[in-house]
Amino acid sequence: MMQRPDIAGKVALVTGSSRGIGRAIAQRLAAAGATVVVTGRSLAEPAAGHRAGASVTLSGTLEETVALVEKAGGKAIAIAADLEVEAECRSLIDRAAAAAGGRLDILVNNAGFVDFEPMADMPLAVFDRTVTHYLRAPFILSQAAIPFMRKVGAGWIVNISSQDALPPIRPYPDFERYRGYVIYAAAKAALNRMTQGLAAELQPENIAVNAVAPSTAIRTPGADAMIPEDFPTEDVAYLAETVLAMSYLPAAERSGLIGFSMHFPWHQNIPVRSLDGMDTLPRREPPHWSHPAIDKTDK
């Protein structure tokens, strides 16, 4: 069996970690030994947001995430930040490193905003918010994190992507006409290309840059309204394990990949553990209903 990843002594920042995928990633990285800085808008109380012109408040706070990490024996630090506010986004890396003793080894760009609407009808404000979350914020945060990683001669940047970044299946299924996810998908595709290009730029400095996406869909407080009730989903632990796998090897060994949560552990023979690291989960073959364009080897 492959040796468990050990990131003890490392500091990780996970954006959008008051709930859902970000919370799961924070838990898994902490279980592997990292001090995890969790960030989002919801510190002690859920923060209100907007979707389809209405106010929406989702469950989950940073303080709850910290409590879950600490209950499992890990260490987490909460820092509130709104990535749509440029000053808060630009200062976040420095604040996170200062709170964790002056270093930052791992950056996970997970925070997101989803408001699906057909492109012909989408307000420019929704377009701008989508691009801000999935391209502008990862650009700003990665740029700010690189000097900390250069200082210690290593680093890991992981961008959370989506299978929606892949080309739509032909002949086009009916949902392509009404789902309204074109701009979201385009932003994720651009994020994948940024991941690969930045990996090429930083590999000589031993800074790995990879992306991880769900192989199908993961139910979270933010995504639940976008997923049909009868659509089969996957356990978030497989994605969290894939993020961990992208967060410890030298860049020469693992960089520039677009890994998928069910595919990567399966093809790389990586044991998937529970979010607290205590139990080994069943080895699960990638589902047949995942996008046919997903690389079946992840190499």
From TrEMBL:
What Gene3D superfamilies is this protein classified in?
NAD(P)-binding Rossmann-like Domain
InterPro entries according to UniProt: KR_dom (IPR057326), NAD(P)-bd_dom_sf (IPR036291), Sc_DH/Rdtase_CS (IPR020904), SDR (IPR050259), SDR_fam (IPR002347)
Region of interest called Disordered, as start-end residue ranges on this chain: 277-299
List, as start-end ranges, the regions of compositional bias called Basic and acidic residues: 281-299
Please state every residue range assigned to the domain named Ketoreductase: 10-215
Q: Please, which domain of life does this record's source organism belong to?
A: Bacteria
Q: Which SUPFAM superfamilies match?
A: NAD(P)-binding Rossmann-fold domains (SSF51735)
A Pfam family matched by this chain, by name?
Answer: adh_short
- Give the family this protein belongs to, as stated in its UniProt record: Belongs to the short-chain dehydrogenases/reductases (SDR) family.
| PANTHER family on file | 3-OXOACYL-(ACYL-CARRIER-PROTEIN) REDUCTASE, 3-OXOACYL-[ACYL-CARRIER-PROTEIN] REDUCTASE FABG
Q: What is this protein called?
A: Oxidoreductase
Give the species this sequence originates from: Sphingomonas bisphenolicum
